[in-house]
Amino acid sequence: MATQVAGRKMFLAGEWVNSDRIIEVRDPQDNSIIDTVPAASAEDMLKCIEAAKEGAKIAAAMSVHERMEVINKAADYIEANKEKYARTIAQEGSKTIREATKEVARCIQTLRISGEEARRIHGETIPFDQMPGNENRVGYYYRVPIGIIGAITPFNDPLNLVAHKVGPAIASGNAIIVKPATVTPLSALLLAEAFAKAGLPPKVLAVITGYGHEIGDVLVTHPAIRMISFTGGIEAGEGIVRKAGLKKIGMELGSNSPVIVLEDADVEEAVESTVSGAFWAAGQNCLGVQRIYVQEDIINQFEAAFVKRTNQYKIGDKQSESTDMGPLITEKEAIRVENLVNEALQKGAVLLTGGTRNGAFYSPTVLKNIPEDSTIAKEEIFGPVVLLFPVSNLDEAIEKSNGVNYGLQAGIFTKNIDKAHKAIAKMDVGGIMINDSSDYRIDAMPFGGMKNSGLGREGIKFAIHEMTEPKLVCYKLSNSTFSS
Fold it and tell me: Which residues form the Aldehyde dehydrogenase domain (predicted)?
């Protein structure tokens, strides 16, 4: 018997609408159909953009207190329905119910911070009389919304990463069109539901579901879109840059994050932190720990403890509170990770634990003796695989950490403040965590990377800066104004 599902609608121009075509949303755990969403057409996207033009005017005209009220009401709605939101995240994606519950809590926090930052979009006065002949001029600048923002979001944080784009956009008086990941659209639609219930004016927010090759280019290339905010892979990011034209670009493109563990580190603390950082959301995490550089004097101790803790991870049903790790987002992704590991093994890497696949599930895997020419040593794995490397000292660890084309975040474990500060100064990353794994983040901090890890910064205050621009005001006063 065919699975019966209700079918969700997409949120277009303030209305919930269907399409002639649908996309099946499947649970990666067993590939069962859990719902359907519309497969929007290019014409749907064009209609959405036309509505957003009016939505941008409406959003810009909203007072700060109106923006704050709507955002906080949306957060209240999610908080009142947090179990439904968590279950949806866990069902359509890779996260366990415990991981999904934490994502919902972070989404609420993201929106609350957005509401607070709406009141802090400041300008400043400018002393025009710093230049001779301008003694009778005074002025200032203030920040204004840029207009319509196009947001393209990934599957790995299907609610909170959408909130990281929607919250700042609305806080700063913009309209926003969200194109969520095709495999995880339900959480983004639930976010739209929260804003609709909160009284957000129609046409300010749209969540349009569909295939990237059909609607993505329309969103990216349209001249009315003033900014593209994208979270995803480097190849897709490069494609967007080539197509976008004259508009702002904000991108978070992932990484293969390094963590350094020095001989004076608390090994137990480092192991617990890096195991969690490596296998959260089945390793499908842009901040996930991928490369660990351990000083030679403690490498054997660290390796044994790391493998032991990894083997304690419980893999299974995402909806069970006792499960530590679920499947990858699709079996295709699990096969991709499997192939990366097998390539490294064929070139001489040593498997310490894991390395097995069952459908979309891939066991937590630890490798050592990884050849430098293996793909897994240079590129983002985006799966539950960790690479262990011995190093003789901090300088070698920093050099190897920097020896890739990514630079999102890093971690270092040490009790020596001088060594910590040397790593801070020398590591080519957007953020460095001291005595924590690379996988640490709060939603208020600036978030983004160097090199191929992206452009610009997220984090509410910093995203608002990207989503606004300064407008200058200068008054030329009569000369008598300043005369005695």
Answer: 16-473
